Every structure is written in structure tokens, then in C-alpha cells.
Amino acid sequence: MLRGWFGLRPSTRLVALQAVLGSTHDLFVGLGELRAREFLGHTVNRLAHSAAAASGLVARSDSSSLLVLFEQAEQALRTACLLREELRAWCLNVDAQFDLPIDVGLSSGTVLCRPPAFEGETLLRASTLAAAAHGGEILMDQGVLAALPPELAARVQRSVPPPGFAHVGTAWSFVYDDTSLPRAADPLWLNLRSPDGRIHLSFTPERPIRIGRDARSDVVIEHPAISRQHAVIIWRNGSYMLADMSRNGTWVRHQAASQPVLLHRAVCLLASTGSLNLGRRALAWRAPDLLFSVTPPPQFNAG
Question: CB–CB of 77/90 below 8 Å?
């Protein structure tokens, strides 16, 4: 994780991942400008949360792109593949035939760490590689390739930059094979519990899970900072998604991430294990309101 260097040193060697959503013209034609912009905003937000859950530090984002920093090249490459899968599943909400490509550039090198700003040639090179990629391509420089484990390096091939990008020099393209990515064979269970043990519940994907002060909620938590209908968790396209609907927001911390992420009238993915702070900022001395874990269904013995 990035705790060791965040804010403490002026520079360090990291891997920069620049992701750019491409070919958005069809989206604007099909949905109209207002709905298309709203969809893109939610899309980048979802991808940012997925990258944070994969131990990345989201350094910058806008309506159609995302810059994430990683300590390891393998982390960055696997996250690039994860973002492709997340985007594909998310686009199913628009149309079964809709496919929005994401072009990715990966670069390894020195990054100037002056939070909240990050600078350096590594970031510029990652952005240039993402701009040179096309059709959902993942391009990387020699530094990233040299740091990959053999099984991933074997799936990389030399790429010829398109016209206008000769200055990129030698670039390498990852041969993406989505059949090699793990897929859940069965629907997963969502387990929610409070640190004090008063709440300990498990849910399956059949229906939404409502959280708030309202007595009719599936998970009732009493505190003035928590809204009556604070958040809802739904199962969509093989993942649990949390949607914040509250007045004060929800802080989501994944176990693999160094920092909690604030949701306010937004959506994020719940993966693996983590914690939720409802209506109040997640601080070191404040216990979370809920701990969550996403697990396979328990195996029951017939005997």
C-alpha cells in the first residue's frame, strides 16, 4: 500500500495508470448530452472506487479519464484489466450491445509527490501512451514491462505507435484475454456486522439491502448524522454496489486501500472486506458503523 510514502517524500518511483474513455460519440447520440454527461460522471466515479479498492491512489480524475498511482507494475496491469471488466459490466445498464472502450497507458518512473498534486515525466508519459492507445488497448513502456512477472510479460507484444505518436518510441501492448480472469461461479453473500456485535447479518443478491435510521430498513443504525434512508446496496452484474442517498455522505474503506473514500449521492463497488462510516468522517479514533465482507456462499454438510 501507499502509506509509506504518501506525503512524506518529494518523489518516489511508482507506476502511473492513465485510463481514458474513448468513442463517447455514440453515447451522446443515444442518451442526449445531459444524460450522457451524467452517465460518464458515474462511470469514472465507479472506476475510481474500483482502482482504490485494488490498492491504487487516485491522483486525478475528470469526466472521461482517470490517473491512478501504484507501487507495483503487476498491480497496475491487473487493475487495468479489472477496469475493462468493470466498464463492460457497467455498460450493460445502458444497452446489452453497448461497449464503451477504455484506453490505458502505463508508465514506470519517478513521481513528484506533493499531495494533493502529483507531477513528473512519468505521468506525462502514461497520458501519452493512453492517447496513443486505441480500441481499448493497454500500452506500457519498457519500465513497466521489465517489472512484470514472467507469466504476464509473456502476454506483451511490441506495438507500433499510430501516426502522430512517433515520439512515444518503443511501446508494448498487453494481449488482453478476458477468459483468463476469474469469474464468480455462484452469487456471493454480503456480510454486515457492527464492531460492537449488535449487528451481524448476511444477505444474498435477491433484493436490495436498505441501511438507515428508518425502522423499516434492513439494517437500522441510530445516530443523528445518519439519514433515515441513508444507503442501499444492490447486486448488479456480479457485484455488490453501494449507493449513498444521504445528507452527510458515506465513507467507504476497503481493506486493501490506505485511505477511505467519501461517497455523497454516488455509487461504489463493495469488494472483499472493508468498513463503512455513515454520516461521520472516518477517523482513526472513531470505530466504523459497519464492517462488510463479500464471500462465497457457506458450504453446508448434509450429514
Answer: no
Rounded to the nearest 10 degrees, what angle do helices 33-53 and 73-91 cross at? 140
Q: Give the end-to-end CA distance of the chain in Å, rounded to a whole number.
A: 44
The architecture in CATH of the region 11-180 reads 2-Layer Sandwich (3.30)
Strands 138-140 and 102-114: parallel
Chosen CATH of 189-295 out of 2.60.200.20, 2.102.10.10, 3.40.50.1980, 3.30.720.210: 2.60.200.20
Dist CA 243 CA 44 (whole Å): 15
277 beta partners:
251
Measured CA to CA, the distance from residue 48 to residue 40 in angstroms comes to: 12
How many other CB atoms sit within 10 Å of the CB of residue 8? 10
The grid cell for 28 is: 451522446
**Confidence (pTM):** 0.61
Residue 209 class from Cβ within 10 Å (0-12 exposed, 13-18 middle, 19+ buried)? buried
- Residue spans of the domains in the chain: they are 11-180, 189-295
Strand partners of residue 219: 211
C-alpha to C-alpha distance for 61 and 100, rounded to whole angstroms? 18
Check residue 77 and give its pLDDT: 93
CB-based burial of residue 276 (10 Å sphere; 0-12 exposed, 13-18 middle, 19+ buried)?
buried
Share of the chain above pLDDT 70, in %: 81
Quote the CA–CA distance of 278 and 174 in Å, as a whole number. 40
In the DSSP assignment, the letter for residue 278 is E
